[in-house]
Amino acid sequence: MNAASGLTARLASRVVDYIRRSGLAVGSHLPEQRLADAFRVSRTPVRHALHVLAGMGVVARRPRHGYFLRRVPAQTPKLPIRDDAALAEERYLRIADDRLAGKLEDQVTETALMRRYGLRRRELQRTLHRMQREGWIERKPGHGWMFATLPDSVEAHAQSYRFRMLFEPAALLEPGFRIDRAELERIRRDQRMLLDGGVHRLSRARLFEIGSDFHETLVSFSGNGFMIDAIRRVNGMRRLLEYRAKCDRGRFMEQCREHLHLLDLLEQGDPGRAAAYLRRHLDLVREKKTGIPSSSSTPPRHAATVTAQL
Amino acid sequence: MNAASGLTARLASRVVDYIRRSGLAVGSHLPEQRLADAFRVSRTPVRHALHVLAGMGVVARRPRHGYFLRRVPAQTPKLPIRDDAALAEERYLRIADDRLAGKLEDQVTETALMRRYGLRRRELQRTLHRMQREGWIERKPGHGWMFATLPDSVEAHAQSYRFRMLFEPAALLEPGFRIDRAELERIRRDQRMLLDGGVHRLSRARLFEIGSDFHETLVSFSGNGFMIDAIRRVNGMRRLLEYRAKCDRGRFMEQCREHLHLLDLLEQGDPGRAAAYLRRHLDLVREKKTGIPSSSSTPPRHAATVTAQL
DNA sequence: CATTGCATTTTGTTGCGCCAAGATACAGAA
DNA sequence: TTCTGTATCTTGGCGCAACAAAATGCAATG
User: Fold this and answer.
1) Is B139 an 8 Å CB contact of chain A?
2) Chain B residue nearest residue A238, CA to CA
3) What are the strands of the beta sheet with A137-139, ordered from one edge?
4) Greater confidence, A184 or B237?
5) Rounded CA gap, B52 and A154, in Å?
6) Which value, in Å, is the radius of gyration of the alpha carbons in chain B?
7) CATH architecture of B6-69
């Protein structure tokens, strides 16, 4: 059973999800068209997915009758996915690491990179375009690419936190703010897991991911597409910015506790306090990361003037 | 003299700029290598650019001696540019317009669009990818694309202004805030020109552009890359959002006056007041565009709580 | 020796055709 | 009917080759 095409693998996972969610009884019939409609695809890929699941013993096929549920799969939906995204990520990181480690010149050509990393043009281009979007490489006017002088890590960090402090707390106060219980529970579980030893067990990359996801999920509750977009983009640059910063796992646990407290505040239905708390949280992290003391030392006149308009 | 390749055209413009800026005397020699170094390209495209300029009478060629300045070109650097970006924009708008006018189904395939608009795959895909980034179309799992249900125009508008009110005024208070005199004068001239009848003379598209540019330039003074990115993205969606909103040219002139006043405040070196003014300006525009009254009617408790942390 | 003129090499884009994967249509079984 | 099984059509990704554009090297010139 080879890894199948992207879609069939993804569908297989989604079908498993669907089964577990819908609480179907063992023996239930799984009509192809029903699933196809649910997932907005045609029957063909659904059929392939079911074939894969049959191989895993989740469903059984009765010729001329279709597929039937055989056992509700264990918690893990299993991932035999030919993980394109992960491969792309790996390529990205390989180049990013080399660049940040000073192993790549300021100016490079595509073919040189293709040779060096054994990539095909398409793959490389996708990676370069991503970097371009993130603003740390740009095309030269003629041929080749040029790495932008990396924004000074500390200053960029400070900038990102000042930006976040503006809109993340405000996101909690948006008129469209609605908590998605399931999502909230998910990020709460993640944070608990981190406190429960995960901080020391997981890779840095994974820690980044969970942290980013926490804030992204909160902002997504606001329903404000512009803010959601903003937090995504800031998060997209976090890894780059934090690459050289050391990872203080002690401080990280503190952050988790703050995250959990924030969730509690939210659930108590007081978005005002939650927002204020989030703001202080961000300010603390900012101070820790950049060493620049809180802005409360700057004359508060400006801020007061601005917010007086509220 | 055909439109030449993108780079040569762009170079031609830049060379003209360079000539006008450097105040070279008529008759000066323009060594290819010097220009090539200045623009970070090789001599080849520089030579092509000079050839084009020779055709326009800006420079003269003496065989075996190279190119010499013949007359310092008039104010306008002239644009014989085969404007790729503009073509892309046109394609984008053509599809966007049709969609917004309800002429396109919710689900479409690439080839259908290619036929309908006579585009090549590459061109279409670039357009679709842009739309995807902007969040109003997405791939179906299998084949084809699906237009997302457009965010309700009024609500999206309100969201964008709430977002802008958070960070645009704050941009003026960023520690790295530095006014670029030349840029400031440029946008001031633009606004004056609008007041001076431009509002009624120019196309809607051009009005959009000048308005977007005004705010983008202000935010760019902050030096905060995240905020600059944010305003660019918000502006990128403005045209789409305002497509169906009527264009009130009277109100537009009022906006221009406010813009000019804002520039005055900035020049007086009081960013605090400028920020406050900008915030009120945005709030007024928001109210005008969405009909939703100012948020001051909502309990100010939240805002106060948040900003108390400043 | 700096610079042009020209030839050659390198680079990156575009068009085209192929093919796996998805959509669709239809016949037949339950 | 409703659903499966199967055949056929369509879509869109991928690699290759050709081409245009840019870089590079070198001889010739003032």
Assistant:
1) no
2) B226
3) A107-108, A145-147, A137-139
4) A184
5) 46
6) 24
7) Orthogonal Bundle (1.10)
Question: How many Cβ atoms sit within 10 Å of the Cβ of residue B22?
Answer: 9
| pLDDT tens digit sequence for A29-43 | 999 999 999 999 999
The amino acid present at A61, given as its one-letter code, is R
Contact (Cβ atoms closer than 8 angstroms) between residue A247 and residue A207: yes
DSSP string across B99-160: HHTT-S-SEE-HHHHHHHHT--HHHHHHHHHHHHHHTSEEE-SSSSEEEPPPPPHHHHHHHH
List of A residues 120-139 with CB within 7 A of strand C: 121, 125
Give me Rg for the CA atoms of chain A.
24
The string of pLDDT tens digits covering residues A106-134 is 888 888 888 888 888 888 888 888 888 77
Which CATH code fits A153-294? 1.20.120.530
Fold of the B84-147 domain: Arc Repressor Mutant, subunit A (1.10.10)
**0.85 surpassed by pTM:** no
Q: Which nucleotide is nearest to B34 (CA to C1')?
A: C3
**B6-69 and B153-293, same CATH topology:** no
Mean residue pLDDT across chain B: 85
Q: pLDDT at position A44, please?
A: 94
How far is C-alpha A192 from the geometric centre of its chain's CA atoms?
18
Most confidently predicted of A22-26, A271-275, A298-302, B234-238? A271-275
CA–CA dist A225, A217 (Å, integer): 12
Nearest to A47 by CA among A28, A61, A27: A61
Query: Of residues 32 to 51 in chain B, which lie within 7 A of strand D by their beta carbon?
Result: 36, 41-45, 48
pLDDT at B82 over 60: no
Tens-place pLDDT, residues B248-278 = 777 888 999 999 999 999 999 889 999 999 9
Do B4 and B48 form a contact (C-beta atoms < 8 A)?
A: yes
Residue ranges of domains in chain A:
6-69, 84-147, 153-294
**How far apart (Å, rounded) are the C-alpha atoms in residues A50 and A67?**
7
Q: What is the pLDDT of residues B166-195, one digit of tens each?
A: 999 999 999 999 999 999 999 999 999 999
Phi, psi of B157 (to 5 degrees): -55, -50
Look at residue A308 in the predicted model and tell me its pLDDT: 35
Which SS3 state, helix, strand or coil, does residue A57 take?
coil
Q: Are A172 and A218 in contact (CB under 8 A)?
A: yes
B86 touches A: beta carbon within 8 Å: no
CB contact under 8 A, A304 and B305: no
Of A163, A169, A296, the CB nearest to B167: A163
